Amino acid sequence: ALSLQELLLSIAGWGYAMLKKPFDIGDRIQVGDMVGDVIDIGVLHTTLVEVGNWVNADQSTGRLIIIPNSSFFRESVYNYTKGFPFIWNELCIVVTYESDWEKAKELILELSREEDSKIETEVHRQIDDMQESYAILRYRVLTSIVYTSIADNGVALTLRYLTPVRARRTTEHKLFEGILKAFSNEPGIDFAYPTTRFYHNQVEGKVKASHGKKEEASAS
Predict the structure, then answer these.
(1) 171-206 core/surface letters (b: 16 or more CB in 10 A; e: else)
(2) What are the tens digits of pLDDT across the range 76-85?
(3) What is the mean pLDDT of the chain?
(4) Which contacts of 28-32 are long-range, i.e. CB under 8 A and separated by 24 or more positions?
(5) Tens digit of pLDDT for each residue in 28-80?
(6) Are 67 and 9 in contact, with CB atoms under 8 Å apart?
(7) pLDDT of the residue at 25
(8) What is the 3-state secondary structure (H, E, C) of the chain?
(9) According to the model, what pLDDT value does residue 129 have?
(10) What would the pLDDT profile of 105-114 be if each residue is shown by its tens digit?
């Protein structure tokens, strides 16, 4: 029984996948730390095309991942595409404290809303379909929003927006290029970045200040 435990669990995992259908062929899933697109569901193992790892923004590496079906009972299974093939993504842009951050916020929202309009109809359709299968509340906000916060080196503007699962890198690329071009035309907006300041204690510090006071006292 002990020697056959893994085999029996894998067969049980295949039965679970067939009956409960937590994912189908073509879905993007995560099992434990492994992420990929499902290309085969076998009796003993499931095959994925790996996504992520050393490649950024959820793009394929080209490698295949062979996952024993027993993993479905030991690891959490996340499905990126089942029911609602969109995910929320966030971009953080930091501008200097001296910048017109309100104008920067308007420009970022304007660019993002252009992307929203391309998927708006499909997003609402998918939400309606999803509510027929799952007891979920309707999302109140489906359009982009920019949150404002204070960072160490400036004002952080965090854009939160919906994107198709497999288009996250494409939308990031379009938005970042649009933001770079828009900010370049605005003299009142500058990107913030870490800077280094050199401090000379003999010139700027208390030693210099106290020396100046002594000179004033002796002169009087």
Answers:
(1) bbeebeebbeebbeeeeebbebeeeeeeeeeeeeee
(2) 999 998 878 8
(3) 85
(4) 28/58, 28/79, 28/80, 28/81, 28/165, 28/166, 29/77, 29/78, 29/79, 29/80, 30/76, 30/77, 30/78, 30/80, 31/67, 31/71, 31/72, 31/75, 31/76, 31/77, 31/78, 32/71, 32/75, 32/76
(5) 999 988 999 999 999 999 999 999 888 877 888 889 999 999 999 989 999 99
(6) no
(7) 93
(8) CCCCHHHHHHHHHHHHHHHHCCCCCCCEEEECCEEEEEEEECCCEEEEEEECCCCCCCCEEEEEEEEECCHHHHCCEEECCCCCCEEEEEEEEEECCCCCHHHHHHHHHHHHHHHHHHHHHHHHHHHHHHHHHCCCCCCCCCCCEEEEEEECCEEEEEEEEEEEHHHHHHHHHHHHHHHHHHHHCCCCCCECCCCCCCCCHHHHCHHHHHHHHHHHHHHC
(9) 75
(10) 999 999 999 9
Structure tokens at 186: 């605005």
